[in-house]
Structures are given as structure tokens and as C-alpha cells.
Specification:
α1 packs parallel to α11. The two termini are 24 Å apart. The longest helix has 14 residues. This protein has a single domain, classed as Inosine-uridine Nucleoside N-ribohydrolase, Chain A, CATH 3.90.245.10. The chain has 12 helices and 10 strands. The chain has an 8-stranded mixed beta sheet with strand order 3-2-1-4-5-6-10-7, with helices on both faces. It has a two-stranded antiparallel sheet with strand order 8-9. It has 309 residues and is an alpha/beta fold. The protein binds alpha-D-ribofuranose and calcium ion. GO terms for molecular function: purine nucleosidase activity; uridine nucleosidase activity.
Length: 309
């Protein structure tokens, strides 16, 4: 039985690869909707990008809903210096041929959860957690419908956007604190594991040689220039780790930990304190993933991407 999921996203090249991997896995994943949020680029652009990627995967059957314009409290910070002015540099995709569905992403998350059975929907946030936080505050009744939240965000060590924080949590730490406090099962993919998920040059070449439009776009995104100072030389596939976990959990290792989020506006803003050794004697609120078999992950990802149009 495929797992019913909602991908909440701020495309972004790695979001794009995550979406394509989900499109390529209909046997395991029933993607109910794509909801967009401001993050890598403003929400108008992340929504356009989600539509462009949906067209690339020829999945017009999956609705795209536009979401939050910015974080709950702080002004929006975006990352064009990493992903390019349109958020998808290297992909070389045309303008979207379709439009977003009517209605706000937060309401769509609420409606889809309300229509589901208990533990009926997995939420896969790949950007700032604003939409999920708003949904949980507006409609706490949906929480029992959330089977698990598998998210990309946070860091056990150095951040990327600041020394303390990973970008998604830095942008909206208040939303992250709400999600980490929601009481539903969380699987956390922080930089500690996602910076391990870097494809080799050979693997990138094989993606480009898939012979389909998806492979060409992914290869272009993974071979684009990359700014320094982000903790890696290649392009880490942060967000695809989330989808890969749904498909191949055996490729990952982790530990249940208590995670706290710093919401102050100082140098520690967005810090995720991960109590890896249980020193705080607090009940764990997340399964923190710490390791991935990266080579095998990309071998399997190449096989899936090759099945796309
Ligand atoms: O810090 C990496 C995360 O921030 C990724 O999800 C990337 O797409 C951006 O959203
Ligand atoms: Ca993202």
C-alpha cells in the first residue's frame, strides 16, 4: 500500500530532485499534494518552480498549493546566492504550463489530513516549517491524522547559513519549535547526514546519460557552480534524503533524541540542540538520522530517475 504523503517544499534544486524521486516511486509513494513555502526563493517563485518540476515529471494529476509568504515572526531570508535568481539554476526548465490549485497550502494540508484516517498522512517538509506550524495551530484536530513528519532541517554540528543554524530552521525557528513540539513522530534529516549525500562525478554523469528530460535537468543542477562556505564542495542532496528514507530506510542510521530549537534573534537563532547522549533527561521528540550509505542511495536514485519521462 503506497504511503500517502504531502511534500511541503521551497524549490530549490535539491527539492526538485526530491520531487522527481517521489514522482518516480508510485509503488511506494502516493503523493497527495505539493505545498509551497517561501524559503530558497520567495513563495511566488517556489510555486512557479514546483509547477515547472511537476511539468518535467508529467504529473499534472498532483495539485500544487501556494503557501506562506514568510516566517511566523522574523522577516523572510532567501538563498538566491546558492540556488540562483530563479531558484533552479542549472535545470534549464521552461515556464510552467499549468497553474497552482486554488486555496492556500495551509488549508490544503488541513483538508487532506481531515479527510484521511488516523495516522493516514505523512508530512514531508523540505523547507521552512511555516505551513506545518500554521496548520497545527489552526487545526490541532489534524495531529492524530499525521502518521509521521519526515523533514529536512537542523544540524547536530555546524550550520550552513550561520555557524549555528541550518537554513530551513534559521528562516523560521518559531515554526520549527512548534513542529518539534507537536508530539507526532518526527524523522529529522539535519546537515549531519545530508552533507554525506553527495553524488560522485560518475554518478552525476550517469544521471545525465539517462536519456530523459529529468536526467538532463538533474545533471544540470548538480554540475552548476557552487558558492563556497556551505560545508561541502559538491551539491549535497539534502531534501532527497527525506524521500529516500521512505523508499529505503535500510540505507540510514539514527537515534531517538530530544531536540530543542533556539528561537531568539541572536547568533544562535535556529540552532537545533540535539541531545545525542541523553544528558538532558528529556523525552526524545525526534529520530535523528546520522548516517547514510550515500553511494548506494545514488545508485538506487539513478535507477528511479531513469524511469521518468
Ligand atoms: O539547508 C538546506 C535546506 O535549505 C534544503 O532544504 C534547501 O533546499 C534549503 O531549503
Ligand atoms: Ca528545500
Amino acid at each position: 500500500m503506497p504511503e500517502a504523503i504531502i511534500i511541503d517544499t521551497d524549490p530549490g534544486q535539491d527539492d526538485a530532485v526530491a520531487l522527481l524521486l517521489a514522482f518516480a516511486s508510485p509503488g511506494e509513494i502516493d503523493l497527495k499534494a505539493i505545498t509551497t513555502v517561501a524559503g530558497n526563493v520567495p513563495v511566488a517563485q517556489t510555486t512557479t518552480n514546483a509547477l515547472r518540476i511537476r511539468d518535467l515529471g508529467q504529473r499534472g494529476d498532483i495539485p500544487v498549493y501556494r503557501g506562506a509568504e514568510g516566517p511566523l515572526v522574523f522577516p523572510l531570508e532567501t538563498a538566491e546566492f546558492v540556488c540562483g535568481p530563479d531558484g533552479l539554476s542549472g535545470a534549464d526548465l521552461p515556464a510552467p504550463a499549468s497553474e497552482a490549485a486554488p486555496g492556500h497550502a495551509v488549508q490544503a494540508i488541513i483538508d487532506l489530513c481531515r479527510a484521511a484516517p488516523e495516522d493516514g498522512v505523512t508530512l514531508c517538509p523540505l523547507g521552512p516549517l511555516t505551513n506545518l506550524a500554521l496548520a497545527f495551530r489552526l487545526a490541532p484536530d489534524i495531529l492524530p491524522k499525521v502518521r509521521r513528519i519526515v523533514l529536512m532541517g537542523g544540524a547536530i554540528g555546524l550550520g550552513n547559513i550561520t555557524p549555528a543554524a541550518e537554513f530551513n530552521v534559521h528562516v523560521d525557528p518559531h515554526a520549527a519549535a512548534i513542529v518539534f513540539g507537536c508530539g507526532r513522530p518526527i524523522v529529522m534529516f539535519g546537515l549531519g547526514v545530508t552533507l554525506q549525500a553527495i553524488a560522485s562525478h560518475d554518478q552525476i554523469a550517469r544521471i545525465g546519460a539517462c536519456g530523459n528530460a529529468a536526467g538532463k535537468a538533474v545533471s544540470g543542477m548538480l554540475t552548476r557552480p557552487r558558492p563556497g562556505g556551505l560545508g561541502s564542495d559538491g551539491h549535497p542532496m539534502h531534501d532527497p534524503c527525506v524521500i529516500a528514507f521512505l523508499l529505503w530506510p535500510e540505507l540510514f542510521e539514527g537515534r531517538d533524541c530530544f531536540v530543542a530549537v533556539e528561537t531568539g534573534d541572536g547568533p544562535l537563532r535556529g540552532r537545533t540542540t540535539i541531545d545525542w547522549n541523553g544528558r538532558l533527561k528529556r523525552a526524545p521528540n525526534a529520530h535523528v538520522v546520522s548516517a547514510v550509505k550515500a553511494h548506494e542511495l545514488f545508485e538506487r536514485m539513478i535507477e528511479r530517475l531513469a524511469t521518468l519521462p
